[in-house]
């Protein structure tokens, strides 16, 4: 399990510490990330030209990795704008207002719906499916846009993804690496996922209510406007205003949710998940956008379809603009480094981030309590690349090592590493991983990451303490 660390590893670690410190202090990290990419390139390529080129190439790599998310967010926003401008969205969400009457009901209601949907289809498609529909309801009863984003994020990318009990992608990866049955990991993860979920969501809700009461709440809205306004845009107000008869609006308000429910049925029947599920939702959103725009704008429909699409893409790239340089740096911690610079790392290396995790496991004393703490830290470190899934195999391997050496429960240690990696990297703390929820709600991903930081850290501490008793 040992690994020989190089100067590249230490430079990467130093920049991680600096970036996290700046994020906590609410400072922009783009320049530091670019400097880190340049420094790593200089060590890897050992030429100025190679280092300078590496900055641009890392941006290209990050953009390719994020393109699917950029596309789905842009398309959903474009569709949402035409639904809002035509009044269809208002008609569609009206029945929900009977059940969601307070900010607290909106927070927990959105969170639970997000969790249930994410269990079956993973969080990114779930955000696209429910965010645009439920957000106006939440805003109407006084739940801030950032509060809605926190709920979707913690329940979807946190609770649902860290357990992954339906699709079982995460427990299979960790179980295979640890050499134990998948069922063992799933059973061991259940109390940890419940504890982590309860502590984190309750802490986040309490902090939100406290800050709103004290007047210290920061909503982190993009362009300082409401979330519904972020989806509405302004270009659509030019020319002939969109007009639909009340009857047509009511019919469309019924048909559109049914189309997305049909997507859900298709995902289940065809076992679509991840990118395939997102593609189905995105394609449906494009067709809805085209049909509604043609019905609403009539003679100007052809031009307005393009206008709404432009609005969506402008919004999507505006949100992702500051994220790409940061994502580019953290992607270098995984497969991107070898793809850009070749075989610079040792043959036994599994990427800079994973090497750091292995090195950490190799220098700590071997006992059950230290093993639990190490698995949490290792999982969190490997999650910093923003994937959540890239390092959970490593967590399984290290869990097996500690379990063998100390006589601890391998399944519990494996589940703990899985929970830590996915809560950090799956989309609750790393800004580019939580982009879907932030973009749909029209808030800054950096503000969402900062809002999640304390609840997630408290949750990890309590969950690790619980795991010590379970192993």
From TrEMBL:
Keywords: Membrane, Transmembrane, Transmembrane helix. The chain crosses the membrane at residues 6-24, 36-60, 66-84, 104-121, 127-143, 150-168, 188-208, 251-271, 277-296, 308-332, 352-377, 389-408, 420-441, 453-470. This is Transporter. It comes from Paenibacillus lemnae.
